[in-house]
Amino acid sequence: MAAGCGKCGPGYPSPLEAMKGPREEIIYLPCIYRNTDIEAPDYLATVDVDPKSPQYCQVIHRLPMPNLKDELHHSGWNTCSSCYGDSSKSRTKLVLPCLISSRVYVVDVGTEPRAPKLHKVVEPKDIHAKCVLAYLHTSHCLPSGEVMISTLGDPEGNSKGGFVLLDGETWEVKGTWERPGGAAPLGYDFWYQPRHNVMISTEWAAPNVFRDGFNLADVEAGRYGSHLNVWDWQRHEIVETLPLQDGLLPLEIRFLHDPAAAQGFVGCALSSTIQRFFKNKGGTWSVEKVIQVPPKKVKGWMLPEMPGLITDILLSLDDRFLYFSNWLHGDLRQYDISDPQKPRLTGQLFLGGSIVKGGPVQVLEDKELTAQPEPLVVKGKRVVGGPQMIQLSLDGKRLYVTTSLYSTWDKQFYPELIREGSVMLQVDVNTVNGGLKLNPNFLVDFGKEPLGPALAHEARYPGGDCSSDIWP
Questions:
Q1: Cα separation of 392 and 454, whole Å?
Q2: Which residues, including other chains, have CB under 8 Å from residue 375's CB and lie 6 or more apart?
Q3: Which of 372, 382, 386 is nearest to 312 (CA)?
Q4: 8 A C-beta contact, residue 314 and residue 339
Q5: Which has the closest alpha carbon to 378: 295, 442, 323, 472?
Q6: Strand pairing class (250-255; 134-141)
Q7: Which of 134, 158, 224, 144 is nearest to 192 (CA)?
Q8: How far apart are CA 99 and CA 134, in angstroms?
Q9: Which residues contact 213 (CB under 8 A, 6 or more apart)?
């Protein structure tokens, strides 16, 4: 790909080379005030994570957005390792799609990474007019230099899994990536693998279903996603729809980082399963369940059984370990996936959750634990909520964890998060034999923000990371 590239573009030539990259020193986190009692715009926080710095574990910069109630959520880069061979490209802009307002904020981090500035605002009316799409989620750069953002609905909040294309230089809305009329029934996350001419997308629900809170009746009525959509990368159209066995609400999807690989994993939240998808010899795709987190029989909760609720997954850059978070149960897990068909549990750590001792929930029957876990206290702060978004260092040795999922669901499942704000924790990873250990000296408490408690979500490093870089 980059052979003979005298002055190469952004990122790294391969995932294994990325693992040799520099240690992260700052992290960008979108922080949300929507659905809290604070009338202030969401903002991008810059956190110092350099242990040698006097500002270690502190928010060193806050960039407020110009509007209220956007619900910043996930973020992506204007360009990444998919453009490594193009010396005209540089990774200088962080793209912040808004889940509720459907705006896109483009932030300049190249001029001063520790104090980013707002570069451009793409207004929802432009996206509505050119794409008839709204409720934006995942952003990925493309090898062409364009930026593609998945959607969950149309402007009226009906389900519509389409993709908005932005020019990566001018930020003009170019239209939809998919062919006219070819959107998926539901949308959420996506990952592409050019060598296999494939993209696969996942399904949450229509915005009108999830926007105002979780309702069990919507599950019973089949309004949540249960399929993977397989797209022809060159023709921009769906070629297969894969029903998931015990796969309700497939959220984050990750191909193996090896660009030649034809398999990956997806976490299914409501059924608490990890599914492996893979390419068959004939060129079609299949999916199989490889991990099941059993529910716990409980008392004092909204249902008699509590699912783990797998809300985020990651793969290490060497494709050896899979990580995921059970937001409700409260545990973070590490699996060895040297044999992708038979993941092996190698690390587990409880970081809060709904079943801690002394809380309102009593566990009546548990297929995994013999006792309810102790509440987590870090640097004198009792952690509320559960582990949610996760990000791994390039070398695979540090895992960063935040506790907010989506402000409306935070308010419903963990109301104390609204009062106290979320936190960011750091877990040390044993990359030789497997294993997870909490760093007791690391805590970023977003309950102490100047304007009041905030909900911090997904983490990004200036140099790219495990969930933003795709290699062609």
A1: 23
A2: 352, 356, 357, 358, 359, 382, 383
A3: 386
A4: no
A5: 442
A6: unpaired
A7: 144
A8: 8
A9: 408, 409, 411, 412
- Residue 337's nearest CA partner among 353, 317, 360 is 317
Distance CA 48, CA 281 (A): 47
Average pLDDT, the chain: 96
Percent helix, strand and coil across the chain, each rounded to 5?
A: 10, 40, 55
As a whole number of angstroms, the distance between CA 36 and CA 407 comes to 8
Q: Which of helix, strand or coil describes residue 389? A: coil
Q: Is the Cβ–Cβ distance between 239 and 231 less than 8 Å?
A: yes
From the centroid of its chain, how far is CA 336? 21
Pick the CATH number of 15-456 from 3.40.50.720, 1.10.10.10, 2.130.10.10, 3.40.190.10: 2.130.10.10
**pLDDT of 49-67, one tens digit each?**
999 999 999 999 999 999 9
H-type alpha helices, 36-152:
124-131
The encoded tokens of residue 178 equal 């998919």
Q: Which amino acid is at 112?
A: E
**In this structure, are residues 60 and 393 in contact, taking their beta carbons and an 8 Å threshold?**
no
**Which residues on neighbouring strands pair with residue 61, listed in sequence order?**
46
Q: Locate 93 and state its tokens.
A: 């802009």
Longest dimension (CA), the chain: 64
| Stated pTM of the model | 0.97
Range from 211-215, 296-300, 318-322, 434-438 carrying the lowest mean pLDDT: 211-215
41 in Cβ contact with 70 (< 8 Å): yes
Question: Residue 333 forms beta bridges with which residues?
Answer: 324, 348
